[in-house]
Write a structure and sequence with these properties.
The chain is mainly beta and 258 residues long. Helices cover 10% and strands 51% of the residues.
Length: 258
């Protein structure tokens, strides 16, 4: 199966070289707000969205995908003071993946599409730091308990409305507990995304004080998932993160290989 519209941009890793795109500075920020809305996806449909060399991670027979909605404060090269940093609101559709290396199987996420409300992120993404970002309006509305995010782009819309709950309020058909879900997403710190030239570049996220909270959802919409074959993608759960210091750096090879 191969999907050829906006949901899938096929890249053959075997022809893309064997290293990061170029020198990438370490970047730092505070994750002021982050919503991880997670879907169960049919494995064959998920595979059709991936480049050669990447395979979906399966949990309870399903691929795990979703959208990361994030507001960053003090986003900057890691050696600069936080007060010099930039505010950025972004959205990234992701698929949990694995790939083979001489050292064994490794895991991470593949990010087929990134959107940003930040002109700076769109201008330098894929050039100075990884991640080609498309333009979108990204709006956060956070009362401290209720948190909603709306993303509007030319060919994509996301809307997630949540209420943060206590740890025992977590409900998921993929993961038996909040701790299981948290560990799954924390381990997948490496993200691969396509460059402007069609290669892949990797970025590693390191956080200080990783913590997720479960969220009850009153509204979930992503046209990325809604336009997949009927019944192949089903919303599972949402997690919220707040006030987490973070750092991004380029990934040392080896990466995926076909």
């Amino acid at each position: 199966m191969q999907l050829t519209d906006h949901r899938s941009r096929r890249f053959d890793i075997s022809a893309s070289g064997r290293g990061p795109v170029g020198p990438i500075p370490a970047m730092a920020a505070t994750i002021e707000r982050r919503v991880l809305a997670t879907y169960r996806v049919d494995p064959d449909v998920a595979t059709a969205l991936l480049p050669t060399g990447l395979h979906p991670q399966l949990v309870d027979g399903s691929a795990v995908a979703g959208v990361c909605l994030i507001e960053l404060g003090a986003f900057r090269p890691a050696w600069l003071r936080p007060e010099i940093g930039h505010r950025s609101r972004n959205a990234a559709h992701r698929i949990a993946v694995q790939w083979d290396t001489p050292a064994g199987t490794r895991t991470g996420v593949y990010i087929p599409r990134r959107h940003s409300a930040s002109r700076l992120a769109r201008a330098v993404g894929g050039r100075v730091f990884p991640g080609v970002h498309e333009h979108a309006s990204v709006l956060f509305d956070d009362t401290g308990v209720d948190l909603s995010v709306t993303v509007d782009a030319d060919d994509l819309r996301v809307r997630v409305a949540t209420r943060v709950g206590t740890d025992d309020a977590f409900r998921s058909s993929l993961f038996p507990s909040l701790d299981d879900a948290s560990m799954f997403f924390q381990k997948d710190a490496v993200g691969w995304s396509p460059t402007r030239s069609g290669r892949l570049e990797g970025l590693r996220l390191a956080t200080r004080g990783w913590r997720v909270q479960p969220a009850e959802t009153s509204e979930v919409q992503s046209t990325f998932f809604d336009t997949l074959p009927a019944g192949s993608a089903q919303f599972d759960h949402a997690l919220v993160m707040r006030g987490i210091p973070a750092r991004w750096s380029s990934v040392a090879w080896p990466g995926p290989s076909s």
